[in-house]
Known about the structure:
The complex is a heterodimer of chains A (988) and B (151). Chain A has 988 residues and is of the alpha/beta class.
Amino acid sequence: MEGLSFSYYRDHLETFSIFSNSSSSSSSNNITYYIQLIDQDTGEAYGEPTKYNNYSSINQNLILEALEFSYSYAFNTTSLGTNWTIIIDDNGHNPLFLNSERVTRTSVLSLGFSVTTITDFVLAHENNGDNRSLISMAWGTKDGGAIVQGIPNTHLVISNDTVSLQALDQNGNPNNGVGGTTIPCNNERFGSGLNIQNTEYLIHCSTIDIMGTESVYVVAIPKNELLSFDHHQQQLYKKKGLALLIVMIFMILIALLSFLSMNARNAKREMRLRASLLKQMEATQQAERKNMNKTHAFAAANHDVRASLAGLTALIDMSFDLVDNGSELETNLKQMKGCTQDLLGLVNSILDTSKIEAGKMQLEEEEFDLSILLEDVVDLYYPMASNKGVDLILDPCDGSIIRYSRVKGDRGRLKQVLCNLLSNAVKFTNEGHIAVRARAQKPTSLHNSLMGSSSSGEKHGGFMERLSSWLFWKKSSEEAGGDHHEGESMSDSTQQTEACCVMDFIFEVDDTGKGIPKENYKSVFENYVQVKETALGLGGTGLGLGIVQSLVRLMHGDIEISEKDLGEKGTCFTFNVLLNAYNTITNPTPKEEEEQQQGSNEKGPLPTLQTCSSGSSICSISPRFRIRGSSPKPEPSRVVMLIADEYRRKATQRFMESLGIKVMAAKRWQDLFHVLKKIKQRCLNSSSQSSSSHGSEYLSVSSTLSRSRGLPLSSMDGNFDELNLSDGLVLVVVDTNAGPVFELWKMVSNFKRGLCNPCQIVWLDKKKMLLKDLDRNMLDQKDIVLMKPFHGSRLFQVMRLLPEFGGGSSRSHNSRSGKSLRDWNSSSRCHSYHEGERKGENDGGEIIQEGEDAKPLSEKKILVVDDNPLMRMIALRTLIQLGAVIEQCENGEAAVKLVGDGLIKDFPNLPYDYILMDCQMPEMDGFEATREIRKIEKRYENVRIPIIALTAETDKMSIDAGMDFHLEKPIKRQNFLAAIRYINAKHS
Amino acid sequence: MDVVTQMQRQLLQYTSSLFKEGFLDDQFNQLQQLQDESNPEFVVEVVTLFFEDAERLLNELSKSLEQESIHFRRVDAHVHQLKGSSSSIGAQRVQRVCIAFRNFCEQQNVEGCLKSLQEIKQEYSLVKTKLETLFKMEKQLFAAGGSSVSR
């Protein structure tokens, strides 16, 4: 207890050092302590040391005890090692762990910790610092040396590896038998329980090594507190889980709700859509109904129009009887009648529109001459066009239309189409020209595809119809071929099919009018559409092109507006139709060659062109035929043309040149003089000079000649060498429109004078200027004056004047043909048509004649079968007027009997030439009677009496029953004649 | 001759009115064309035949339609005949009603049939009077020395 002592201690945040010099006083009571502040970082003391008198507060006893202990320990043991003890001060507070070490003999170093510090540390370790206040703790070294009784009301004894804890009662006496436990200190996780003063404690014992001293600590935790704590924790977790659950449910609910609402919205939308669809459908149906009603009303109105038109026709007919023959009024009436018929046709066409709309349109197949049809149509519109100062030209193109002119198809519809396009063209063209071009070609796949665009139903039916008709015609043509060329080999059948085939006819109507804006090219074909700007003030329903398109499609073609070159005015409608065509010229095989001339004549395909009964016809356009035809008459003719309209001139020139005719065309009337002079010179020269030089000159004159098809130049030259030029005809075609008539006349008559070649003048005099300006006597009798447009058959007629095409080389022949042409020309168009028809019939070997007084059915025996006396009477009268001999009976049975008896009586002669059979009769109707009659006929050889059915309905049943034709009631003269013609054509 | 011309004009006007009002159609013209010197009374004969025929048919029709159970096929046949007759003289209004009648027959519509029958009767009597007037006028004209218009 003597000497110096020095110690550091921490009080709160400051570190102090206490030192004393005990050597200065012998009594421990008089030790003076000094306190000095210590710098925490450096450990150096700073500040003034103050004398510390209040040493009671620093627990002198403790220090002393500690010092004592250490002293004794250090000095007694004098060994190195860890010597820890727990020192408890008098009050039992602030126990210290203390270790002392002897340094020297007299010096001891002690180190002490407050137990609470370590307790805190351990508890922090054990319990994460929670609920520290509740936990009490006891300490002791393992060897049982030092014990800190930290747990209240207990007595702790530590022996070796176990700790026994004895609970004390309130007086501090051990509560025997009640509380006490012994716990092994083996760091078990769970301790045992102990009841201390009615409180359950959980006791846990652990060992701890504090600076090498094996120590034990016991932790006592009140059980219920722990439980409540756990419970609390659990509650917390539960709450958290519940919150989570609620959140999840909430989210699920939201998802569900949104899904439901989306569903609902979708459903609503669908409902709305359905509702609108229903509404739309209703509207559509209503519109359709309205449309239907409109169509019906339309049809009804048209029907009435038709009725009044019929009245008009009748009136005109009546007026005919009142006027003198040949008066102007009569011609006017004729034209009026034509107009009313056209109008009727138009109304019918409008009715057809509704038919087309309903898809019920049907084509009536009949045989007709396409070139005549074209010419008719063009001539029909020619006056209208020329009134407007527009030239209407029928361009023959390559002549293919003439070759295939005999076709089978719906004549009326085709005419309707052409008329419609032409009337449009005339309507919208105020200057220039309108050209109608037509050509035939083999159907190409392109047009098949066009055909495909038409509605499938039509197409199907149409195709079957076409196929059947094609087969039918093939058969009939073979029959016909058999009649004409008996003993022909089988190989000819292919040629026959060649002769009758489906051809694609392409028509173009080209005008120089206002044209149609390009964007309207498609829409003009829709019904009721008119091009506003151009149609201004011209009227029309806008129905025409729609019908045209429907019709063209019905005929397996299509229509479109061709694009014109830049700078060209106007519109060009192009359409094509498929028709059954008969090649009017069969390609001559070597074997057939000699028959050709005869054959082509016999068949007589082109009646109007057959009027000149010479070897070859004008329609022989195929190159081979032409060469053959021209070789016996080698002299080339020349054509000089003066035509005002450029297009007509070029078209005519091109056509003639394509046939190998040399054409010189004068553009202006002044040029004509030079051209004529040249020709004259050449002709005069030719008589004296060698011919070879002329050949070359010719070539220079007409360069296009070398291009003419199938005609090699060498052969041309060869022909030229041999020919006698003086025989070549000079054909001069002069348009009186092109210049002053008198000048032209002078020029031409000068030319004629002193010309050694035969010469034929054709005046084109559409405005009758020739007769106005010239005296009739001034014109040469041989000259031909054409007042109608120079195209079509008139062009061919004129061309036939050329020796190459049948015109005689002699002058007399010329004049004769010229005269016939003039006669023909002066007669009306209608008449020419009749003439043509009559010719055709004559060629067909029939004696039927048509005319005012003629009785085409004279000496024909006809049986009229009808139950109705009225009908019988009318039929009787009709047929008697036609010159027929009539027998009549009331029903089918009687008819069958009459036929049977008649056949038995004198078989080789047929009892009747025709039978006119009513279909609906009592007892035995027409169909059955026909079947019976056909049965009877079978007993004889080669007997078939043509039976014409008379029906009220237009049903086709009659054909099935074996009837040859069916007529609609009431019987009409023209219809009956047409039927007879049809039957004859079929049987011949 | 003035009277004759006037009568001719009247007749013409009358005839045209018949056409205009749709009583007659082109078929009547055809009939007139069938009349010639060898058969000068042809039109009158035919029309008289028509009258007889029509009256017979109309009687039959009335009888058929009065019955309890109507034999529609027979009615249809009658109407068909009447249609044929009327169309062959060109009485197109009668003919038109016949077409409607036949439609009703097809539908077995008794009311429609009866209505049509009434209509036919009316049209028939109308056309009959008209034609009779026409013939009377022609006769008068003929008596006055004018030639028949129809020739």
